[in-house]
Sequence to fold (259 residues):
Amino acid sequence: MNKEAVNGARSLYYGFFSKMFVFTSDKNRFDGIKEALDVMIANPMDENSAEALKEIKEFLEVGGVKDLVSEYDDIFHNPTTNVVRDTASFYDEQIESGKKRLEVKNFLAKTKIRRDEKNFKESEDSVGFLVTFMHELIELVIRGEKSYDTLQHCLFKEIINEFIDEYIEALYENDKSNIYKSLAVVLNAFIEFERLYFDVNKPVSKEKVIKKEEPCEFISDEEAARRKRNREAKSADSVMKACDIPEESFAGKEEEGDL
Fold:
């Protein structure tokens, strides 16, 4: 693959995703998005993403930016709905602002790029920040700063690649997703291309742990006491076996005055 030849297209895609995933009140938030769509529609990743891109364009032509913002808010910020979580930390540890955020901040510290904290409210490990960060790194590479090649590879491999499939699935399956369902299709196709670009494998799917409900059982106080005595006896027996201490060693200990 001629990487230099495709960097312009990669930058375009990351810039497009930045506009779609970054929360901002900037009135110029979606400037250039229709032009980007035209270029991507003319040169799609595959048939599915080609159709999805056309759906996004049609949605914008019919409903405009207002409907797009409304759907975005319902998916990511509406407290009355099952919102889509968008940070690497959440998919890694099920918490916000975890170790993945620190890792991204460490990557950021190695660059000349700085976060605009006044206008950019998302966490450093959010999808919006990550795609914007990648866009800026590619632009630096295009301008001749080849040292950022390694950094963008590490950012994709160690952060984005590890959780992005789960995020895409959550976005696609969210009951409020309409045009963002189409966007999930485009993002999925692009991520597959990025894996080829960086020669990175798709991570092994994490097994979802399903907690089994304990059966509801009523027992009498007498039965509860009997079970407790049995548990205590088994526990004591296990301790003695684990320590390999003969049971008779415990006999008469109180008479010796030891605690």
User: Anything to note?
Assistant: The radius of gyration is 27 Å.
